[in-house]
Amino acid sequence: MIICLRTVDVPPQWRERYLAWIDAGRDIRQQHGILAELVCEPSTGNGPTVVITAWPSHEIFDAWIATPHRDALTASDVHQAVTYHPITRYDVPGGYLNLPGLLAHDPDPSTKNPSTLHTTPEEPS
Questions:
Q1: What gap in Å lies between CA 57 and CA 48, rounded to an integer?
Q2: Which site in 8, 39, 84, 105 is 20 to 30 Å from 46, CA atoms measured?
Q3: Across the strands, what pairs with 37?
Q4: Cβ 49 vs Cβ 9: under 8 Å
Q5: How sure is the predictor about 7, in pLDDT bands with cuts at 50, 70 and 90?
Q6: For residue 21, what are the domain limits?
């Protein structure tokens, strides 16, 4: 697994539309392998927004970057209104995720109803 971290400057008047754009692209990104996408804002309100994404591998992330589906998302007026800084990739050699805890604190209200969860069956070990 890899984690990609990128800071972005989101103009205040575009914030709600930007968050909606992230949510609207969820299905297509998941079809291309994304595991998670988190938009983080400073608690103080000062500073850049940080976008964290998780991918199964560098190869899957690179394939996403090269797909026309990504090009279609980045051609939007919302994407063009935001200033993106370089992506930093991190390999994940260890750690864990508390999936029940993450589900309980999911910031996306649509996932509170289990019937709307976007899940994939676990691979056999």
A1: 26
A2: 105
A3: 53
A4: yes
A5: very high
A6: 2-93
